[in-house]
Every structure is written in C-alpha cells, then in structure tokens.
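Q: Given only this backbone (71 positions), what sequence would you predict?
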C-alpha cells in the first residue's frame, strides 16, 4: 500500500500540472497560428505584387512594339 501512495501522488501532480499549463499552451498555439497566418498573408501579397509588376512589364513591352506593328 505504501507504493501506491507515492505513485498516485506523482500521477496526480502530473495531471494537475498539465491542467495548470493548459491555458498557456492554448495561448501559445493561438499566437503561433496567428504568426503563421501573418507570414502566409505577407507571402501572398508579395506574390501578388510580383505578378502585377510582371504583367505591367509585359504591357509596356506590348505598347512599345505598337509602332513596329503599324509599319
């Protein structure tokens, strides 16, 4: 019976610690998720901007070629 007491106390302490730390772990996961969303959003905006610039450069090249097509 003496061996059961310390084992039970150790298990209870571990369970209590898990529940005590749960709010912090949840907050950390939310913060980490928000950071990942920010990174994904920034990458999306960067990609969109590069695409716009690329198409604008194509438009300028097309406009520059108009005089040669008219000849």
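A: Predicted residues:
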């Amino acid at each position: 019976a003496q061996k059961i007491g310390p084992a039970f106390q150790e298990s209870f302490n571990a369970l209590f610690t898990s529940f005590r730390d749960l709010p912090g772990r949840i907050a950390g996961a939310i913060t980490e998720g928000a950071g990942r969303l920010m990174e994904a959003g920034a990458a999306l905006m960067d990609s969109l901007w590069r695409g716009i610039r690329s198409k604008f450069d194509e438009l300028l090249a097309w406009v520059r070629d108009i005089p040669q097509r008219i000849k």
